[in-house]
Amino acid sequence: MNIIVGLGNPGEEYSGTRHNTGRIMLEYFAKKNNFPEWEKNKKINALVSTNKIGKDKAMLVLPETFMNKSGGSLASLITSKKKAAELVVIYDDLDLPIGKFKISFNRSSGGHRGLQSIIKKIKTEAFVRIRVGISPLSPTGKLKKPKGDTAVGDFILGEFREKEIDTMKAVGKKVADALVAIVSEGREKAMGEWN
User: Fold this and answer.
1) What's the pTM value of the predicted model, to 2 decimals?
2) What share of the chain has pLDDT > 90, as a percent?
């Protein structure tokens, strides 16, 4: 069974923030693909929804822990390398411009705390990630990343601007299609098609 995780922080005050991009994308995917209502799973401390994507069963997971403890929700679900190979994690990425996303496999955390937590808990990097860009571009097309811990913290915990919301909706549709491709056709084919 495929397990697809959307990273973010729980609670209303974080719902529209850039750091909740993974969660936002997965909530959109669930709605678009007629997954049932989210249910709280106390054992893994996450909201869960299970359905089929094509012929394959998939469990969508929104950890109800803060970002840097995300791995706790997956420790009992991903208990082998084989299960890790069917894991997809969606999250925000400062190294990509807003409106872009990339599918990767078996890479380091790149300093992302949610990813670090997952790698530590499931003891492998061999899973699929969908990295969704959140950084603005300068008028010359250069990436305008915030610099310094405080600026980065303020930026990722800030809400998307009005014009950015439309961009995120457009990228959400593509991410949803890419997820279907990963589950139905396999990661290699999906990476070839979407990267």
Assistant:
1) 0.96
2) 90
For the chain, the residue count is 195
Q: Which fold has domain 2-194?
A: Rossmann fold (3.40.50)
pLDDT band at 180 (very low <50, low <70, confident <90, very high): very high
In whole angstroms, give the CA distance from residue 73 to residue 171: 26
CB 83 within 8 A of CB 127: no
- Strand pairing class (56-63; 39-41): unpaired
3-state DSSP helix/strand/coil percent for the chain, to nearest 5?
40, 25, 35
Domain spans of the chain? 2-194
Find, among 51, 5, 54, the residue nearest to 186 by Cα: 54
Give 119: exposed, middle or buried? Use CB within 10 Å, 0-12, 13-18, 19+.
buried
As annotated, the active-site residues are: 19
